[in-house]
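Changelog entry: the Major facilitator superfamily (MFS) profile domain-containing protein record was regenerated in this release. Current contents:
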Amino acid sequence: MALNPSVSNEKRELGHLDHPKEVHTPPSPDFSGEEPRQNVMFADIDEGYDPAFIRSTIRKVDLRLVPVLSLMYCISLIDRTNLGLARQANNLKMHKQLDLSGGNGQRFSIATLVFFIPYIILEIPSQLGLRKFGARWWLGIATILWGVVTVAIGFSPNWQTLAGLRALLGVFEATLFPGAAFLIACWYPRRSMALRMSTFYILSVTVSGFGAAMAYGLSMLDGRNGHAGWTWIFIVQGIITIGIGILSILFLVDFPDKATFLTEEQKELVITRIQRDRADAVVDPMTKAKFFEYLGTAKLWLFAYMFMCGTVASYSLAYFLPRILAEMGFSNMMSQLLVVPPYVWCLFPAVTSAYIADKVKGARSYAIVFNICCLIAGTAMYSQISKTKQAARYAGVFLAIGGSNSFLPLVVSWSQTAIRAQSKRGYASALIIAFGGVGGIVASVAFQEKEAAKGFPSGIYLTLAMNAANVVAVIALRFWMKWKNSRADQGLCVIEGNPDFRYQL
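Regenerated structure tokens:
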């Protein structure tokens, strides 16, 4: 049975038990599409349900949702960041064949950053199609299409074609990350969000780290069937992407109200827990009035800034790490293979930080600050600023990659715990991740090819400065949220339109 056998049928329908303190009654599980009722947040969102039934249901959701999204985002990261690996392959053969050294060394930066222009512009519009067509069709078809583009990049005859195809890649990839973040937020209560968001993200990043080893292996096909090694990197990885897109159409789960892999009783459990947690289990359509209201929400812009600072670091390492390692004195082969270990390492700080953020009260902001500090320390170590030896500089790469890729999903999950309404969730995930694209542009411009021999000083100093300011932003937001919670406790304000809603610090 899903509920405790001692609970009456009437109370089973309401999803609650008698309790010594006064609680608000959640709406009936038979949601009809109207706006969510207010004052329905419970201290215990699982009250009245059998713990074993809860565990089995959530495990079922975890196994169907997180691995598929992780696989899709993994290949997304590989396809958008393999440009640096392809350029480094076979002693910079792609760099020479496509004349990327022209234009005062800026052509590679142009090919890198044009991806982010449509990626940023289309983040918010892409969320509209997610609900209309369903997650598996919308995200699955987009994955197939950018796989086709990735294959086409392998046949680029010049740098202009490369840049144009990179821009088209950004069009289709714009759907995935904000869509995945929104989808995860719709399935889990706030106390479980950081761990799921981080698991989805970091599994993708970790596995994508092996893309460097795969790229090196594919580059060994240099000359096979008349194609250079760098072309095989794009062709094979693009074919893999198309296959993953087909699998996602078959296996990716949709939103809770459309879930076909759950029983009605399990679906009721998922929806009731969300309704008790934050009272936004019901779909609310995006309107013009809501859009402009969300546009003026300052905390969302602050979350977006935090995310952008982190992506300046993560994208700069994704695109330029092989070159950075080469400048440290590693051989061409080792500069590609040594990309892998730091991305494997980042799994450990990311999962640990997310677990603490979910389980320890008031730890969300502190977990973010800790990882930003690791990023700052690691960046100073691997750059020539530190004047350290090769081993110490490589250790800094571990700290920088671990720190940046640990706090990025924490920012996304923290933002999702600080809002209500599904339309706002979709908007917030798109806005924040769009600013991640801005961070990619900043990284592409700040890390200049002409400064490679000097250790990219402009990019390094900018990364350090932005993330030092990021620490201040996180702490300031924490104090503001604490002040708002205090005012809400005194009845002086209402947070997110619900008297029971409180920010998680």
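Residues 16 and 47 are 6 Å apart (CA to CA).
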